[in-house]
């Protein structure tokens, strides 16, 4: 199984500043890497797929990058509505599909 | 509207059974694999199982093989998760999601762009 490890577990960023979230895979799997945002009591929301393509309706302040085993989600100019937990997911080599443990993003 | 609407769930005693349902609308259900993902209280997301667009293939996370069964009825645009021999560690929110796209005749791996609202399962005596 591909193990996805996210860092940090919790990140506090001031409004208007940049947030950088990392995701590392235990082995290379191509670029079928997605990022999701989840707010309490809600289903996850797809932000990024193919490592760097924004999903429909996602603001341009969200961007994804990386390849191989190292991936990054960047949120430029953080807004209060971005407070959530963010998950990376590899959907290339399965079963099983695997998710990272999540990064909780807070406002400083 | 393109949506997945879940039903089922609730409180069940250890060793009991439960069936979750997920009804799709607004898209051609029979062109897509479907998936179940769960989330234990305060924990992350865990993929549970998926099923091929025609129901001919199913896959499970190793820890659930034998206790859970995923199935679908394309005539009813619905996917199901039958859960037997439930344990306390099965407690959590269960989500259905749209998976691999076979609309063009060739199937493409894709992320989960459409999710159900989630349904709570509590296994407790």
Plain-language structure description:
With 108 residues, chain A is an all-beta fold. In chain A, 0% of the residues lie in helices and 50% in strands. Chain A contains no helices and eleven strands. Chain A has strands at 4-7, 10-13, 19-25, 33-38, 45-49, 53-54, 62-67, 70-75, 84-90, 98-99, 103-107. In chain A, strands 2, 4, 5, 6, 9, 10 and 11 form a seven-stranded mixed beta sheet that branches. A four-stranded antiparallel beta sheet of chain A has the order 1-3-8-7, with no helix packed on it. In chain A, a hairpin with a 2-residue loop joins β7 (62-67) and β8 (70-75). Chain A is globular. Chain A starts with a strand and ends with a strand. Chain B is mainly beta and 125 residues long. Helices cover 0% and strands 49% of the residues of chain B. Chain B is built from no helices and ten strands. Chain B has strands spanning 3-7, 10-12, 18-25, 32-39, 45-51, 58-60, 68-73, 78-83, 92-101, 119-123. Chain B has a six-stranded mixed beta sheet, with no helix packed on it. In chain B, β7 and β8 (78-83) form a beta hairpin. Chain B is globular. The model of chain B has no long low-confidence stretch (mean pLDDT 95). Chain A binds chain B through residues 32, 34, 36, 38, 42-46, 49, 55-56, 87, 89, 91-92, 94-102, and chain B through 35, 44-47, 50, 59-62, 95, 109-113, 115-118.
């Amino acid at each position: 199984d591909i193990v996805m490890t996210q860092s940090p577990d919790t990140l506090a960023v001031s409004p208007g500043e940049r947030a950088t979230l990392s995701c590392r895979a235990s082995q290379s799997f191509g670029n079928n890497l997605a990022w999701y945002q989840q707010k309490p009591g809600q289903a996850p929301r797809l932000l990024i797929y193919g490592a760097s393509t924004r999903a429909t309706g996602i603001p341009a302040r969200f961007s994804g990058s990386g390849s191989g085993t190292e991936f990054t989600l960047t949120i430029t100019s953080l807004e209060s509505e971005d407070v959530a937990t963010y998950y990376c997911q590899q959907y290339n080599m399965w079963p099983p599909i695997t998710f990272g443990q999540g990064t909780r993003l807070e406002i400083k | 509207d393109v949506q997945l609407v879940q039903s089922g769930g609730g409180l069940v005693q250890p060793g009991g059974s439960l069936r979750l349902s997920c009804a799709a609308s607004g898209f051609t259900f029979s062109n897509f694999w479907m998936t179940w993902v769960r989330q234990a209280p305060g924990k992350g997301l865990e993929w549970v199982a998926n099923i091929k667009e025609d129901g001919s293939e199913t896959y499970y996370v190793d820890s659930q093989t034998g206790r859970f069964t995923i199935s679908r009825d394309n005539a009813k645009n619905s996917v199901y998760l039958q859960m037997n021999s439930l344990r306390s560690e099965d407690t959590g929110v269960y989500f259905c999601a749209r998976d691999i796209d076979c609309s063009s005749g060739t199937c493409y791996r894709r992320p989960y762009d459409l999710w159900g609202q989630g349904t709570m399962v509590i296994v407790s005596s």
